[in-house]
Amino acid sequence: MAANMSPAYAYTVVYVKDVAKSVAFYAKAFGHHVRRLDDSRRWGELESGQTTIAFTPARQHETDDLTGEVQIPRSSHQRNAVEVCFDYSDVDAAYKRAVENGAEAVSAPEEKEWGQKVGYVRDIDGIVVRMGSHVR
């Protein structure tokens, strides 16, 4: 009999310069609760509903040698291949909170043609964070 091969999405790993600073930033700017920051300060996790957001250093010999180096954008005209997205019931208030707590404003929240209100910021590592209302 075949084993159950339906995977559960476990977590997303975000590669950052300083794990402790990024974990503290996401907690303050976006309202997440810190689940874990290990003693080495090389792994941190945030509670985010059903999925965990994990942070680890962008440069580390354990994985760079196995899977390649993380490509970090060199300017604000480049971005990572992934963006982090959060749903909020009050996108304007969430956007304001993020910017007041160190996020770089990219685009203020606006209504999109598909019925979602969306704004964009960059985190302290330059990663694009989409802040939007839930799409029904």
What does this structure look like?
The protein has 136 residues and is an alpha/beta fold. It has helices spanning 19-30, 61-67, 91-100; strands spanning 11-16, 33-37, 44-48, 51-57, 84-87, 104-111, 117-122, 128-132. The strands form 2 sheets. Strands 1-4-3-2 form a 4-stranded mixed sheet, with helices on one face. The protein has a 4-stranded mixed sheet with strand order 5-8-7-6, covered by helices on one side. It starts with 10 loop residues before the first strand and ends with a strand. The relative contact order is 0.18. The model has no long low-confidence stretch (mean pLDDT 87). Residues 8-134 form the VOC domain. This is VOC domain-containing protein. It comes from Sesamum alatum. InterPro entries: Glyas_Bleomycin-R_OHBP_Dase, Glyas_Fos-R_dOase_dom, GlyoxalaseI/FosfomycinResist, VOC_core.
What descriptive keywords fit this protein?
single chain; 136 residues; alpha/beta; 4-stranded mixed beta sheet; 8 strands; globular
Output mean pLDDT: 87
Give the helices and strands as they follow along the chain: EHEEEHEHEEE
Share of residues in strands:
25-35%
* Biggest beta sheet attributes: 4 strands, mixed
Q: How large is the radius of gyration?
A: 16 Å
Question: How many helices?
Answer: 3
N-to-C terminal Cα separation, in Å?
Answer: 39 Å
Tell me which oligomeric state these chains represent.
single chain
By DSSP, the count of extended strands is 8
Percent helix range: 10-25%
Q: Quickly give the structural class.
A: alpha/beta
**What's the arrangement of strands in the largest beta sheet?**
1-4-3-2
Shape: globular
Low-confidence stretches: none
